[in-house]
Design brief:
The chain is mainly beta. The protein has strands at about 5, 10-15, 20-25, 35-40, 45-50, 60, 70-75, 80-85, 90-100, 110-115.
Length: about 120
């Protein structure tokens, strides 16, 4: 059973960039579609970006298209989210998981705070 650990969050100003990482331990997630999700204060968890098992196809929420890029390195059991041109509305706790998500795999998440 894989465990997922998110990292790379922090406090940045609007327009700056962050790169989030999702590292898997226990076993490889090479065979799974994966995704990034986020939850803002007082809001439900929402889908941000997805990537298929081989990395050939990606999909994004409308709000982040053109600014965020999802990628994966199956050899390293790691997934990434490059976030450029960050906006205050991107402020949230970011999580990685399978896509569709499995309740077993939610981790602690990593906090992203964007100030203006």
């Amino acid at each position: 059973q894989v465990q997922l650990v998110e990292s790379g969050g922090g406090l940045v100003q609007a327009g700056e960039s962050l790169r989030l990482s999702c590292a898997a331990s226990g076993r490889t997630f090479s065979n799974y579609n994966m995704g990034w999700f986020r939850q803002a204060p007082g809001k439900g968890r929402e889908f941000v970006a997805g990537i298929n098992w081989s990395g050939d196809f990606t999909t994004y929420a409308y709000s982040v298209k053109g600014r965020f890029t999802i990628s994966r390195d199956n050899a390293k059991n790691t997934m990434y989210l490059q976030m450029n041109s960050l906006k205050p509305e991107d402020t949230a706790v970011y999580y990685c998981n399978r896509n569709p998500p499995s309740e077993t795999y939610w981790g602690q998440g990593t906090q992203v705070t964007v100030s203006s």
